[in-house]
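Inverse folding, one chain.
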């Protein structure tokens, strides 16, 4: 009898805990976001690309032009009549261009890292805001590779994209206000 009572209590406890787990699972809201889409289609991503092109486009074109000129010089050096002096001059020019290219790439990479860090912060803040607003408990990045299927109602990508754009516009207006505030201080010097 005692054994029967203990088994009954264990069974009741197991059923109660499975009911609680089912209630908790029903209340759990999981969302998904395609971070690659947000990172490529958002306003700050587009502005970052434009900024990089504006800042480094001419220098990149100049390096490409110098590279093309060197390729043409290399073709001329294939002629057996080419002097050793012209071959040495070509090698010096190539080394100089290689050094300029490495320096250029380092500058571009530093700015890209800074832009990516700003973008990641903005995307995480936007994701957090959307998840809070829509009462999601958990949000997963679809591009990370762990999600094979998600219902459309779980997809927060467009909401996060809109939130990122909103944050970017707010930051842009704050930066513009900061620049306006700096101008009188600079002109007073």
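Residues assigned per position:
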């Amino acid at each position: 009898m005692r054994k029967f009572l203990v088994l009954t209590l264990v069974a009741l406890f197991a059923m109660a805990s499975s009911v609680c787990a089912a209630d908790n699972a029903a209340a759990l809201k999981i969302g998904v976001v395609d971070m690659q889409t947000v990172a490529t289609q958002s306003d700050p991503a587009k502005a970052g690309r434009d900024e990089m092109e504006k800042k480094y486009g001419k220098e990149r074109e100049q390096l490409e032009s110098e590279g093309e000129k060197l390729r043409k010089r290399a073709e001329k050096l294939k002629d057996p009549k080419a002097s050793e002096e012209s071959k040495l001059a070509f090698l010096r020019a190539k080394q100089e261009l290689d050094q300029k290219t490495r320096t250029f790439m380092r500058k571009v990479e530093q700015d890209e890292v800074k832009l990516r860090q700003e973008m990641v912060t903005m995307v995480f803040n936007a994701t957090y805001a959307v998840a809070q607003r829509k009462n999601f408990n958990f949000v997963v990045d679809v591009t990370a590779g762990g999600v094979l299927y998600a219902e459309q109602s779980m997809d927060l990508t467009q909401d996060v994209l809109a939130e990122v754009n909103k944050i970017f516009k707010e930051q842009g207006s704050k930066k513009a206000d900061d620049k306006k505030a700096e101008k009188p201080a600079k002109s007073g010097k």
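Strands lie at 30-33, 138-141. Residues 4-12, 185-189 have pLDDT under 50 and may be disordered.
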